[in-house]
Amino acid sequence: MKELIAVIITLGLVALIVTQQSPKDTLQTLPELPHFSVQDVAIFSISSKGKVILKGKREGDKWLLVGSDTPTYLQSNVVDQLLHDLQAMQVKRIASRNPEHFAQFSVSDTQVVLEDKEGKMLLNVFVGKPARDLTRTYIRLPLLNMVVSVDKVLTWQVKRTQDAWLEPKAATKDTPTE
Description:
9 strands, elongated, disordered C terminus
């Protein structure tokens, strides 16, 4: 009798393991994001509700703030971090294909556009709120009309104030340090 119970339990465990490892019917084909080289990005812009709030243009190794009355440079390390994250981000899951649900992911306001020297668009994406685990971000791909989660934390980067993008003013010799 004990042997019969042991066989039944073993078969049950084997069946459980096999069903857990079999492919599910809900398998999603994840969309590919546009591929670009960070070195090819000549202009980037961040817009909020259709209005450009920050636009930078590459000048050698530096980034110039477009639209400023005086030459004003952006922090290259901050811009480069955003560009590298946008380049390396990978889609982890499709969150929604239904435009009626896009608002719950906050993917309607903040848009990032990257262009090359000729003005060709390299990337156009709406950045939304962080995912629940705070290690991913929801983005909307306008051409594919879907919201996906990506493996980068982008929200805090694109929602910086303009001052947070600017290079800090160099202290002069006349400025006391105390």
